[in-house]
Amino acid sequence: MSYCCGASMVGTKGTLKHYRTHVHNVPLLFCPVCHRVEVHYKVENEYEILAEYAHGDGVTDVDFQDYVMEDEESIFENVVNMESEDALAIIQNQIDMALDLLGVAKQLEDAKWERELKKRLAVMSQRKLRLQQKA
User: What is the superkingdom listed in this entry's lineage (predicted)?
Assistant: First the structure.
């Protein structure tokens, strides 16, 4: 499981730009709070090699799946949520985990962690409200 801002990161596939080369279908993790995106750690080295070679060859578009044979199930086996899931369910899961962590932070009397969790909860609550209004 990967974390950012204390929230578990969501698994997905996407396109990344490496100089002038677009690498499609790259396994990614993104933070639902701050929207940070990173290449999944299980394929990070493969991504870097493929992107460098494709750029060096002057290729503008390359499909990650054509060159890396990792199966999606094993790559994303340790993520809590996938982007393909219901967005409201993802946010609710993130809120539930943050509330659990807030209880731990209070028990430990860690004021800084409590503030960070409360800030994260405020962001996710706003996102949940926007999603509910759209529905």
Answer: Bacteria
Q: Say if residue 74 is in the same domain as residue 91.
A: no
pTM greater than the 0.85 cutoff: no
- Write out pLDDT tens, residues 16-57: 999 999 999 999 998 887 888 999 999 999 999 999 999 999
Nearest 5°: CA angle at 89, between 101 and 87? 115
Question: Are 16 and 76 in the same domain?
Answer: yes
The last residue of a domain, from among 47, 66, 82: 82
> According to the 3-state scheme, what is the secondary structure of the chain?
CCEECCEECEEEEEEEEECCEEEEEEEEEECCCCCCEEECHHHHHHHHHHHHHHHHCCCCEEEHHHHCCCCHHHHCCCCCEECCCCHHHHHHHHHHHHHHHHHHHHHHCCHHHHHHHHHHHHHHHHHHHHHHHHC
Q: What is the pLDDT of residue 25?
A: 93
